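Ticket #4471: structure export looks truncated?
Reporter: QA, pipeline team
Priority: medium

Steps to reproduce: submit the single chain below to the structure queue and open the exported record.
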Amino acid sequence: MGLIRTLLAMSVLVAHTNVYDNLLFVGARNAVQIFYIISGFLISYILFEKKSYNKIINFYQNRILRLFPIYFIIFIITFAWYINFNTKFFDYWTNLGSTEKIFSIVSNVFIIFQDYFHFIPLEKGIININSSSKEMLSQSILVSQSWTLALEITFYLIAPFVLKNKKILFLLFFLSITVRLLLFKIGIATELNWSYMFFPAELSLFLLGALSHQILTPIYKNYK
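Actual output as written to the record:
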């Protein structure tokens, strides 16, 4: 599993260079979505197989300790990089309204909602849902790739309450697939943000991973 995740991470890294990202790897979008499936599998495994996570608070503490220390290190390094080599980022911040700045500060610190920032248009630095401008609030995110962590965190928040209840799990799984089909029907499912940043649609991938664990584990144990 570790090797697969490493290869997927390399695929995303290559995709952000000038190298053709599908030459040796699966491509950034596919890599991210496979990550979602693996995450669902691992979180289901942790919640079912690790007795230390019988208490929900222990699960949340573990997730916080795994995500935020590394995130803050990357955050500081990126901040230092921008100060020295990309001051345009701070020029963008000066044009934001006070409300937008508060939203962005909270999201930059706690990661949450960064995925949804890709759906919030701005006009002259102010949120305007009717704007046709291509400028988005996501441009205020310091670590631009951390929006994937925002999806992960949303999944972590609901996982202890969903994965152990088969009825809720299957209901959310089919609802998420329905959302994805509706996106295709209205013709936006292949657009960048809607294709793998919209949590209600991507939830089906997390749950697919969780279902894989819950279905395959008993088979494996019986065979063993």
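Status: closed, not a bug. The export was complete when the record was re-opened. Leaving a note from the reviewer for reference: The first helix runs from residue 2 to 15.
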